[in-house]
Fold this protein.
Amino acid sequence: MARKLVESTAHFSHLYYRLRLPDADVPEGMLPMRHIDAVSVGKQSGLRYAQIQPAWAAELEALELSSHPTADPHDLYDESAFDQLARDFPEGCFAGFDGDRLVAMGVGIRCNFDPDDPLHTIADIVPSDHSGSGHLRTGRWYYGTSIATRPEYRRRGIGGELYELRKQVCVDLGLEGIVAGGVMPGYADHKAEMSADEYIARVRAGELYDRTLSFQIDNGFEAVCGLPNYLSDPATDSWAALIMWRNPRLATRP
């Protein structure tokens, strides 16, 4: 699967790395670099992307928490859930490395989703008690549960590279597409004057800019509607935007 991703994703350098400094070559007092099987190298960012591993669960949790500071941690993956996710669906979850440092991630699960009945909360997708990842092996959609980048690495094209990797997963597995509850941080400044659906419509029309939702639209996602009580976040009154990307390979089938 890793080699297939590299060969079929035109946006990335066609490289396959095993990044490891042999223990014999490590200077005294330094730890050897972790073992990273990179499935691609970001053409714009230069990051090496690898399928997540259980050993990285604590780092992934820390990145998740730092990227959603106003959200209720119970609505986010914790270390145990990341550990399980890495075992359930590693081929659909990616971490980005600058050298030996984990600086970004884009993770998700397979689920069943009905576009004609779209309203849901994150608790409908991922167990709120952190008892599992929520992954369904036969699910027909890829659900994007989290995408995060360290602040000092933003605006380097990393988000777009992670989206391309996940789109390629859908193509390779024949999934219907990607769906997610997208955060819309800009709504915090407008919630007193308009509904979430009006805000989404104005962002969609280009009349307002939201650093997350506008970016997702620019990456080929539809901004469908608001999702009330999606996750507990007082900054946005717990609203999120339903975003969707449809696999064009399926749309063109005879």
